[in-house]
Amino acid sequence: MNRFISSLVAASLCVAAPGLACAADITLGSLKIANPYARAMVPGAEVGGGYMTITNSGKTDDRLISATSSRAAKVEIHEMKMDKDVMAMRKLESGLALPAGKSVQLKPGSYHVMFMDVIVPFKQGETIRARLTFEKAGSIDVDFAVGSAIAKKADIGGDHANAAE
User: Fold this and answer.
1) In sequence order, which residues have a C-beta less than 8 Å from that of residue 77 and are 6 or more positions away?
2) pLDDT > 70: what percent of the chain?
3) Which of 1, 86, 123, 159 falls 20 to 30 Å from 80 in CA-CA distance?
4) SS3 for 156?
5) Alpha helices in 41-144 (DSSP H)
6) How far apart are the first and last CA of the chain?
7) Whole-number Cα distances in Å, 17 to 13, 62, 78, 106, 107
8) Which H or E run contains 38?
């Protein structure tokens, strides 16, 4: 029942506040941002991950070039990938390419938004607002719904994503 009421309140806020991007699909020009979410942070964690799918339905490439949030001192666009049997994470210095006509999934263990030096740890049930800036489409505020800190086995994203095996 509490989850239903929370969903109803969130939906009401989305209708009452035009320009506020909510956890539903968000459109900015030819870009669609679907299912933005973050994980609750475990005690002592100072970083958190943000995830979503971005679809570029346009005819020209775009790029996610930066993000900011009042909940973190710094927000970066990161990539995780295997490098000789070791999972490596790095900042994407030139941002995340969004090819025309394609979808790019930001998910644990892959591309993600990295909230660094988090001021107040993310708690399950809240939302974290971040401003995403794209090279061509411009900027938009996006609310990341915070879910459980524990990931399913297939979604393990490493310590930075607050994952559990």
Assistant:
1) 64, 65, 66, 67, 91, 92, 95, 96, 111, 112, 113, 114
2) 76
3) 123
4) coil
5) none
6) 29
7) 6, 27, 30, 26, 28
8) strand 31-39
